[in-house]
Prior knowledge:
Blueprint: H1 9-12, H2 19-22, H3 27-41, H4 45-55, H5 61-87, H6 92-113
Amino acid sequence: MELSIPVEKSSLSYGWSDPKIFFKMDYKLLFTVFTAVFIAELGDKTQLATMLFAADKEVSKMTIFFGASLALILTSAIGVLLGGVIAQYISTKHLHYLAGVGFIGIGIWTLLKA
Length: 114
């Protein structure tokens, strides 16, 4: 006996309802995402805050490591979930344009503020 759950076809394209897509490991994409996030986080305020917590000689470095790791995992999960939801309403092409415009705007704002 096979159990099937009715799912809208559009939601399958985002990988949320189809286990074959949800659990598929694309190592090229994994490396790309890891590299992009790793480089973006180097010297970021998150890393600086973690270093400040770790600078205290009276605290457990393992506690700081796990606390920072859990926070990064949670923020990443939120990003993945929101990205999946937003992609159901806005095309990937438009999301790329929006992200590009956003980064350019932040860059201009940073230059003007410097």
